[in-house]
Design goal:
46% helix, rod-shaped, 6 helices, 4-stranded antiparallel sheet, alpha+beta, 8 strands, two-stranded antiparallel sheet
Length: 235
């Protein structure tokens, strides 16, 4: 449900004789706004958790909004004068560059509730704008792998070979954004690593061309691709 504009709320107040009724209405609006903010926070956290990108910066933005909002709403409820409310609104404006003003009501409790509602609605806008940004950050490499490999598992006396130690960081949900292919066929991955079991049925030289490329629709990685190849000789 969309919230009624504050202008309507103020008009409603002016036309109502019972402040108690108005306060109850505003309490309902505030409770609804608080529920929507909570749902948005939960949805945002789930989005960040499942994102292929590093969203720590976005998460900090969201947490900052909610921390300030939580603190401010408590201070608003405890305010004892319109002057205190004005100072709290100015603090919000300083933090977020808004131009909120104190509601023109002649009752402090009405002003408190209108101020809380105004700030919650503004916070909802900030949360929505920040959520839209998710998916625009750097890639999140959250799995660490370590490999020891060698080009030859059997050598003659006097021959040399190399032992390679490789430390690699890969995205845990790599399948979300990338296709990994071997000789043109998609390979399933486990912990960011694709494994292909090769059992030759004849002698000869076999070449394996591997590639990793962005899935269609990944706008931040569009056109990105890496390739490598290896040959195995079966004698």
């Amino acid at each position: 449900m969309r919230f009624l504009p504050l202008i309507f709320v103020l008009t409603f107040i002016a036309c109502t004789t019972s402040n108690t009724d108005v306060i109850n209405k505003l309490d309902n609006f505030n409770n609804q706004a608080e529920q929507e903010l909570t749902q948005r926070r939960e949805g945002f956290n789930k989005l960040v958790e499942e994102s292929f990108y590093d969203e720590s910066e976005r998460a900090q933005e969201i947490n900052r909004i909610y921390d300030i909002l939580d603190s401010l709403t408590i201070e608003i409820s405890e305010a004892t004068s319109s002057n205190e409310l004005s100072k709290l609104i100015n603090s919000w404006n300083t933090f977020f560059g808004t131009e909120l003003t104190l509601a023109a009501a002649n009752d402090l409790e009405l002003q408190k509730r209108l101020t809380s509602l105004d700030i919650r609605l503004k916070a909802k806008e900030f949360v929505d704008k920040t959520t839209i940004k998710v998916g625009g950050g750097p890639i999140k490499f959250d799995i660490l792998n370590f490999y020891v490999t060698t080009e030859n598992t059997e050598i003659e006396l006097g021959e040399s070979t190399e032992v390679k130690l490789t430390f690699a960081a890969v995205p845990g949900n790599i399948d979300v954004a990338f296709d990994i292919l071997l000789n043109g066929d998609t390979i399933n991955t486990k912990k960011g690593q694709g494994i292909y079991q090769f059992t030759p049925t004849r002698k000869g030289t076999f070449e394996f061309k591997g590639s990793i490329q962005a899935k269609p629709g990944m706008r931040m990685l569009e056109g990105w691709k890496m390739e490598d190849k290896v040959k195995i000789v079966v004698k």
